[in-house]
Model the fold of this input.
Amino acid sequence: MRAPAGTIITSLRVRVGYIDTDQGGVMHHATYLRYLEMARVEHLRERGLDYNCFELDQRLGLPVVEANLRYKLPARFDDLLEIRTWVAVANRAKVRFDSVICRRAELLTRAQITLCCIVLAEHRICSMPESIVALAATVG
Done:
């Protein structure tokens, strides 16, 4: 999985903590989801959208509706990981963030995380705001 040419990609570096591993020092599978969420929030921030303000000001939320992860190699305690994230799909119905998690040059995990938009007070699905749809724009 590669981002199309011209796609804006952000990068987040995370060191695997002892708390995130099992007794064998391997990162627990659910921890990847937490790290991917951190990467999505940082991607939004780097693109000019503060997610905390988005929820508070617009009273909207972006819950995960689908998560597809392909674990290729395990991450281990104290590994320094790089999570590269981009918006692969954004329209009125959904936004999909694609990510790769690497340790140096090794690809560990590929992920596609799809979110919808809801009105927080009503827990009702609504159309994706233009500010989110615009994130699918490419450079150039």
Q: What stands out?
A: The chain has one domain: 10-136. The mean pLDDT is 94. Residues 22 and 28 are 6 Å apart (CA to CA).
